[in-house]
Amino acid sequence: MPKRRNAPRISDVARESGFSVATVSRALNPLTASAVSPEARRAVEAAAEVLGYRPNEAARSLRTNKSLIVGVVVPDIANPLFPRMVRGIDDLLDDANYSSLLANSGGDPAKADKAIDRLLQRGADGLIIATSNLEDRRPSVLFDSNFPVVLLNRRTYDTRVPSVTAAGSRGTAAALAQLVKDGHSGITVLAAPQHTSTGWERLRDIEGAAAKRLGRTLPVVKATAVSESAGYEAIRDLLESGDSVPTAIVAANDLLALGAIRAIRERNLRVPEDISVVGFNDMPFCDRMDPPLSTIGFDHYKMGAEAARMVMNMIAGDVKPKSIRIPTVWIPRASTAVCRDASSRV
């Protein structure tokens, strides 16, 4: 039987590359690689590749007292908004030899708190949290204890806590401009609950755009949750109230917009012929809906990747991370159209 070949060791890589073991160790560790010159790093990586050397992550974890895990808490993994964000997180973490551990709160703040506790108990080196409400104090407590924490898609009133969120004003202004150009004067806002930054900011953005372009406020109906069923109930109640039927509805997210479309059709009205509908987020498959949904979109993957990059920088010692705003764009599709003459409306 042939003798089993021993796995290459870090000392072998040092010998092959001509650098010290300490330099090789720093070059092959994503958290310290920036301390090594690019030329030395390339030489070390080439030597490791030739020898087939792979760092022992378990041993590294013991040496550095790091778990090499980042916890990620989302409000609803079934929401199509989050898979691309999580993919962005995982890809960036993978480049740093880290892994994510995903927890789902189901939209329950108490469950989110328990998930954070469990991730901390498991030794997560950092947290990316997408469940925070505006008044949530838990991220502030973590931040004040110098624990690496980044808020994803939402933020709290405490602006010291770093976050990666969508900058909705530009996309929202473009959407409203298009509706006005198409002759819509009866525009109603379908708002999300105001205890989250996404709900509050998106209502503020559409109100700001309306004040600037129209010189007036728009009627607002508020959904009780961020879901298709909540959007349906809010617009069903509006259409049954006897108030004027809107010519267009601008929803705070795509799920609310889908619920609005169902309520509109239930009243034997058509989208967009009778009522145009706008969403926010550009979830996967929005372009394949019936009709394809006009929406305000942003790069979900980039949002996740930037959150992961930020938390990794904090793990590496960055004590003053800056929050990031991801730009939004208006994406017109077939759920919006030129407004019909009011006299022909049902």
Automatic annotation (TrEMBL):
Tell me yes or no: is DNA-binding among this UniProt entry's keywords: yes
HTH lacI-type domain boundaries: 8-64
Q: Using the record for this protein, list the coiled-coil segments as residue ranges, or answer none.
A: none
This protein's superkingdom? Answer: Bacteria
Name the Pfam families for this protein.
LacI (PF00356), Peripla_BP_3 (PF13377)
What the entry lists under SMART domains is as follows:
HTH_LACI
Name this protein carries in UniProt? LacI family transcriptional regulator
- The organism of origin for this protein: Mycolicibacterium agri
